[in-house]
Amino acid sequence: MKVRRTTRMKLPGLKLSTFALLAASMVTGCGGGIAGYCEDAMECSRGNESDVEVCIIELERQEDIAAIYGCEDDFDKAFTCLQDESSCSNRIWSHDNECNGDLTDYVQCVN
């Protein structure tokens, strides 16, 4: 029996499938961007292709929300920080609080 695990990351007021929320001590995956970030995050947590798809869908949804509220710059800054600062340790994909300010700015913008 195959068990499907989904790793979740939390942002203040938001939940993102593994970052999302929660990229740079590992090289960003094929093509970079959201897909590469999710591939790296799921490789870290031993997720599968479905987990990568869920991560991509959730981050693209957050990107769409940012566009609706005029918060594209805040999203881009937060996501860039996550790409640059996230890393894998003991199967946990994290940014070690390096991006908290940018993430807070994004969350405050869309809320």
Structural classification = alpha+beta
Note the main sheet. Answer: 2 strands, antiparallel
Q: Can you tell me the residue ranges where pLDDT is under 50 for at least 5 consecutive residues?
A: 1-30
- Mean pLDDT equals 78
What general outline do the C-alpha atoms trace? globular
Order of helices and strands: EEHHHEEH
Helix content estimate: 40-55%
Q: Strand tally, please?
A: 4
What secondary-structure arrangement, pairings included, does this model have?
Elements (H helix, E strand, L loop, with lengths): L7 E4 L2 E4 L15 H12 L4 H20 L3 H14 L1 E3 L2 E3 L5 H11 L1
Antiparallel strand pairs: 1-2, 3-4
Helix pairs in contact: 1-2, 2-3, 3-4
Question: Can you walk through the features of this model?
Answer:
The chain has four helices and four strands; from the N terminus they run ββαααββα. It is of the alpha+beta class. The strands form two sheets. Strands 1-2 form a two-stranded antiparallel sheet. β3 (87-89) and β4 form a beta hairpin. The radius of gyration is 13 Å and the shape is globular. Residues 1-30 have low confidence and may be disordered.
Keywords, please?
single chain, 111 residues, alpha+beta, two-stranded antiparallel ribbon, two-stranded antiparallel sheet, 4 strands, 51% helix, disordered N terminus
